[in-house]
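Entry:
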Amino acid sequence: MSLNTSNLMKALLVGLAVTVSAGALLLSQRNDLNEPQVVLVKKGMSVSQVILQLKSSSIIRSDLPIRIWAKLDFRKIREGEYLIPARATLFEIVNIIWGGHSTFIELVIPEGSNSWQIEKLLKDYVPAEQFWSLWTDPELILLTGEPKARTLEGFMAPNTYFINRAMEPIDIIKMLVKNSKKYYPSSQIKNGLSNYETLILASLIESEATVNSERDRIASVFLNRLKKGMPLQCDPTVQYSKYKLGLPNPLRLGGTDLRRFHPYNTYRIPGLPPGPICSPSLPSMQAAVKPSTTEELYFVADGNGTHVFSSTLEEHSKAVQAYRKIQAEKKLRNQENL
């Protein structure tokens, strides 16, 4: 090897060492944040847009090192909500975002939730105005597979979901609707109702039942009343009518509420209401699909978390009197304890 070649090799090695050292120094530099910062990478955002967000939020001092890194890193940036720690190094920032280490929150939609309750649960992720717009969106309703549906009520399945603020509102609602497929009634219905009517019935069962063992009996009562042309007189449907009308204290019912003419008031309107009143659980759906066979036409709370079922009005009246007596005694005890 000639002297010139040897000197050239040494110069290259020194240059490489300097470059590596400079790169390592840049990657180890910490940002000036005093507290963690959130970076939202929305669907369709380019690398340049993400880097601009990092720079404008003072998460990085200079965008040059990360632009060079982006050219060498073949991983795609995935949409997500990324939490960047205070005093994070450039290497840590790159690893979090390019590594797809997005943060999620656990969202629980309880069984029996109606759309107003779900809207409140989603308020930090789906603005109210957008929620109600999506609630009646024809394309989303088409996803339900139910031609008679006019809203998404009953089709936002109760479950645990993992979401973040980088997700588009429409994608969050779609996730809920698609998950409802496993709750929707199958062709094995033995109640004489259509699929949609069965979903409506299941939502009524869900709103009335407190224990699983009673769901199929509640289904039987409603079906027996339908066959006889009797009004269902289901209190939760009246509560739902108050939600739809935007009235205060929708869960509190009085005589005026029961007498009010509204499509969802099953005291005034015979038959099932025009749509579901909540997102029913799987046990309620199963009870609606395969109800018990009984002659029962009435049920009332027994004061202990379950119900008393009756086949005649006389039996039912006695059960109602017993319930009122229990409630009066509870009220008296509470007053004595004050």
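The CA atoms of residues 205 and 218 lie 6 Å apart.
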